[in-house]
């Protein structure tokens, strides 16, 4: 059988900077081992606080969280750089500054509370250091985009009083701005850092443990079995596999560098251009951030922000997420048809049934997580339980392999299941005792020791994977702090509303551009926090339903990672595809083209997000309104895909592509008679293409397809 598990090109160059440095194996040097230990301590600290084994004030947890991040970032990047000893020494020096800031926040915790609003000179000095270290960490790890955007907001806090009305504010002195941004819960230790130090970190660890346990292989094997033999099957495997990974992962870029190691070489091997292969992977991986249940942890933040139940967010997200992946699937199908790219033979493919039988237990923690979330438990509780259950399964599987008979193994698993269930009655102590017992048993066998090493590595890997998100969250807190200090969000919102009074479409277009600009180079969570706080209220005032307005800005924040010039997900795919990140971004926009349509459709037809169906629902009923808008959106993205790729059964001429695009726009416009015109043009276009296809088949020209 053909081995499809390791298709990475050994000659591919590796970029050991930025996001890539958080995914590489650390060298066996003194600094590599020290960084590994710090990352391990970071994860242990976060688990201890999440499980309330250590109870500290929230402000201390946030300060220590940011402290760990700044201690890790600079030496980690230095380890993989080619620079000399001075650069490495400087990186450790900055790391010590980050640690000193965290220590100061904890040591002076009570005193800082007492003198809040009236900082001492040393408080201001430490605050300046804190801001400088966070800015430097973000620049080093993610490039200049986010620090520059944040710097502009910080400059607005300091100098905005000199701008002309209505952009000006009343003015704030340097000490007040530093106190607001570097202390309390409004700046770098604000809500984004709170979210990073609780939900996000846990879900990244949850994904890291499942990946180490073999979830990627399970997803890949199932995907290959279902679509590997279909036309363009390699790209379809990438879409399904990356979409499934998105259900457990908190980072789209992390998805790219994990599943991409398998899917991009597979696509290239079977004929896809390197840029297109990278674009498919980037599109699918970022799409994982809009796929329930986790949604890059945004579902939990959105539910908390809007004051609605978690299941309401999932309900609104599910149809657009399916349409997003269906449109990507359709696009790669058309690309494969255009270039005659076939799939693997059945004999070369793994069996989905065999893969599920072998690793079915990996699905249990994900199922438990979803059940807990839909049962009303907090995301923090659900994430902690999901991580604990995953660890029990990994350690328990190793122990079960050494048991002498099937009967004993069944008894063991039933007992372990009862222990896990006892968690809900007796608390975390039961699970900790079970974990301690399993660790002790595993320590006495070779396979068990390997399993313990896997768990240890997953803890360190999760901490390093969280660094870009955590760094961005700390920096984004400054943007949120600027808006709470100056009221900048209200000024921008009023401008959007004034535009919307004349044209809702122009207002949406302006919001889209704002989200794409502000979302450049920013991970999913801080991305949503920024865009929703700036643009969400304005859309709500224009009559867009609450959840729909937040979904609109969330979607375009996600698509910012595919949009040049930053296109973070595309540049993460570049070293794997051995292609320019910019070329990959152009292809990603083609594959994700329908993703730019779906949010607009949701605004004009809220039934697409299972919200109030509007006038149509009142006439034909809610189910019929939902079915109608889903069919209309599906037809629009189908036509848009044909226009972008230039193929639909036959190669399309420029005129035909323009007609397909115009027809899709008619279905999107939601103006009087545009739907009727769109459906009529769709029918005419379909008949035209069918007749052309018949003519091509009759002529039987070699290579015509």
UniProtKB/TrEMBL annotation:
The lineage of its organism: Bacteria, Pseudomonadati, Pseudomonadota, Alphaproteobacteria, Hyphomicrobiales. NCBIfam families: TRAP_fused (TIGR02123). GO terms for molecular function: transmembrane transporter activity. Keywords: Cell inner membrane, Cell membrane, Membrane, Transmembrane, Transmembrane helix, Transport. The keyword Transmembrane applies. It is a multi-pass membrane protein. GO terms for cellular component: plasma membrane. It comes from the Bacteria. Pfam families: DctM (PF06808). It comes from Ciceribacter ferrooxidans. It is found in: Cell inner membrane. Part of the tripartite ATP-independent periplasmic (TRAP) transport system. The chain crosses the membrane at residues 34-54, 60-79, 86-104, 124-141, 187-210, 274-301, 313-334, 355-374, 380-403, 410-441, 469-492, 504-530, 588-607, 637-654, 660-690. This is TRAP transporter permease.
């Amino acid at each position: 059988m053909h081995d499809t598990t390791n298709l990475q090109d050994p000659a591919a160059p590796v970029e050991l900077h930025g996001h890539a440095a958080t995914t590489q194996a650390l060298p066996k040097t003194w600094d590599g081992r020290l960084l590994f230990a710090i990352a391990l301590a970071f994860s242990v600290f976060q688990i201890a606080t999440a499980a309330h084994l250590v109870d500290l004030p929230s402000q201390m947890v946030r300060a220590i969280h940011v402290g760990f991040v700044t201690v890790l970032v600079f030496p980690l990047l230095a380890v993989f750089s080619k620079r000399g000893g001075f650069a490495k020494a400087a990186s450790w020096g900055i790391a010590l500054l980050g640690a000193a800031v965290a220590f100061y926040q904890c040591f002076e915790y009570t005193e800082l509370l007492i003198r809040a609003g009236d900082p001492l000179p040393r408080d201001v000095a430490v605050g300046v250091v804190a801001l400088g270290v966070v800015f430097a960490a973000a620049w080093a790890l993610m490039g200049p985009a986010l620090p520059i955007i944040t710097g502009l907001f910080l400059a607005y806090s300091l100098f905005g009083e000199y701008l002309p009305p209505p952009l000006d504010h009343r003015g704030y002195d340097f000490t007040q701005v530093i106190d607001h941004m570097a202390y309390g819960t409004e700046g770098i230790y604000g809500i984004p850092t709170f979210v990073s130090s609780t939900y996000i970190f846990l879900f990244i660890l949850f994904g890291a443990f499942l990946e180490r346990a073999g979830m990627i292989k399970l997803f890949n094997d199932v995907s290959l079995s279902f679509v590997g033999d279909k036309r363009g099957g390699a790209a379809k495997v990438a879409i399904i596999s990356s979409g499934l990974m998105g259900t457990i992962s908190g980072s789209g870029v992390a998805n790219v560098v994990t599943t991409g190691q398998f899917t991009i070489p597979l696509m290239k091997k079977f004929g896809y251009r390197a840029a297109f292969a990278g674009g498919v992977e980037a599109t699918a991986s970022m799409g994982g951030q809009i796929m329930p249940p986790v949604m890059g942890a945004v579902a939990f933040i959105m539910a908390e922000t809007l004051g609605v139940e978690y299941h309401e967010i999932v309900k609104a997200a599910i149809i657009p997420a399916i349409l997003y992946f269906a449109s990507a699937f359709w696009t790669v199908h058309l690309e494969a048809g255009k270039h005659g790219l076939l799939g693997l033979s059945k004999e070369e493919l793994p069996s989905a049934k065999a893969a599920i039988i072998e690793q079915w237990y990996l699905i249990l923690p994900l199922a438990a997580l979803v059940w807990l979330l839909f049962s009303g438990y907090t995301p923090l509780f659900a994430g902690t339980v999901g991580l604990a259950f995953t660890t029990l399964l990994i350690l328990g599987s190793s122990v079960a392999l050494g048991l002498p008979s099937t009967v004993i193994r069944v008894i063991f698993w039933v007992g372990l299941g009862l222990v896990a269930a006892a968690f809900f009655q007796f608390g975390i102590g039961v699970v900790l005792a079970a974990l301690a017992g399993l660790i002790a048993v595993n320590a006495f066998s070779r396979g068990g020791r390997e399993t313990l090493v896997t768990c240890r590595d997953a803890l360190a890997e999760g901490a390093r994977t969280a660094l870009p998100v955590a760094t961005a969250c700390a920096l984004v807190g400054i943007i949120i702090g600027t808006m709470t200090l100056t009221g900048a969000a209200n000024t921008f919102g009023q401008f959007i509303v004034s535009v919307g009074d004349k044209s809702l479409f122009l207002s949406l277009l302006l919001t889209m551009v704002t989200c794409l600009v502000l979302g450049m180079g920013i991970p999913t969570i801080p991305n949503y926090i920024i865009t929703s706080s700036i643009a969400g209220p304005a859309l709500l005032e224009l009559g867009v339903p609450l959840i729909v307005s937040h979904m609109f800005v969330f979607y375009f924040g996600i698509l910012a990672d595919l949009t040049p010039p930053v296109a973070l997900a595309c540049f993460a795919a570049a070293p794997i595809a051995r292609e320019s990140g910019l070329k990959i971004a152009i292809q990603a926009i083609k594959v994700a083209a329908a993703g730019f349509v779906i949010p607009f459709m949701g605004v004009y037809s809220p039934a697409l997000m299972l919200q109030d169906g509007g006038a149509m629902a009142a006439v034909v009923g809610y189910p019929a309104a939902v079915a109608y808008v889903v069919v209309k959106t599906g037809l629009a993205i189908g036509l848009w895909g044909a226009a972008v790729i230039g193929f639909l059964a036959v190669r399309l001429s420029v005129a035909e592509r323009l007609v397909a695009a115009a027809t899709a726009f008619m279905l999107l416009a939601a103006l009087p008679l545009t739907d009727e015109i769109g459906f009529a043009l769709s029918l005419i276009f379909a008949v035209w293409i069918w007749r052309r296809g018949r003519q091509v088949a009759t002529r039987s020209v070699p290579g015509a397809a």
